[in-house]
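Whiteboard transcription, Tuesday session. T.W. wrote the structure tokens on the left side:
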């Protein structure tokens, strides 16, 4: 379930029979990987950092009645950061070939030592839906907290 938290998940991903962390990419492949990282991973991480920064500003500058708003932005930033980890794992699956291995580290029985190759393209629709729901909940809570402030 939490494959994106594995220590050496790059051992499962292959490109041209090399593990993902030891493969030498062509210039075109390198451009493709970097573009995906800038577009997806970078955008999510920048958004999370901006939410953490805003939470810190609210917590440091404003009075204690605004602490719940600062905490909300910190939680929202943590949620976006978790989504970015999941999106990174999905991006690795799109570029590299995942090899299924059994417990002994060998290829799946009956499929040879190379394992079963699966290359799937997945849109980021599921990530967008989760991020949209997270944003709606966060900004609805922000509206409620703002209306609850003493006038």
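and on the right, the sequence the group agreed on:
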């Amino acid at each position: 379930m939490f494959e994106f938290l594995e220590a050496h998940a790059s051992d499962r991903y292959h490109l041209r029979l090399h593990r993902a962390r030891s493969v030498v990419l062509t210039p075109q492949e390198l451009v493709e990987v970097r573009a995906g990282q800038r577009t997806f991973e970078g955008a999510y991480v920048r958004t999370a950092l901006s939410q953490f920064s805003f939470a810190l500003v609210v917590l440091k500058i404003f009075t204690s009645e605004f602490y719940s708003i600062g905490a909300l932005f910190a939680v929202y930033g943590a949620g976006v950061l978790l989504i970015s980890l999941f999106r990174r794992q999905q991006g690795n699956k799109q570029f590299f070939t995942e090899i299924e291995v059994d417990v002994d580290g060998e290829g799946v029985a009956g499929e040879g030592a190379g394992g079963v190759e699966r290359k799937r393209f997945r849109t980021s629709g599921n990530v967008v839906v989760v991020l949209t729901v997270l944003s709606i909940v966060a900004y609805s809570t922000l509206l409620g907290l703002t209306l609850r402030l003493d006038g």
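Someone added at the bottom: The chain is about 60% helix and 10% strand.
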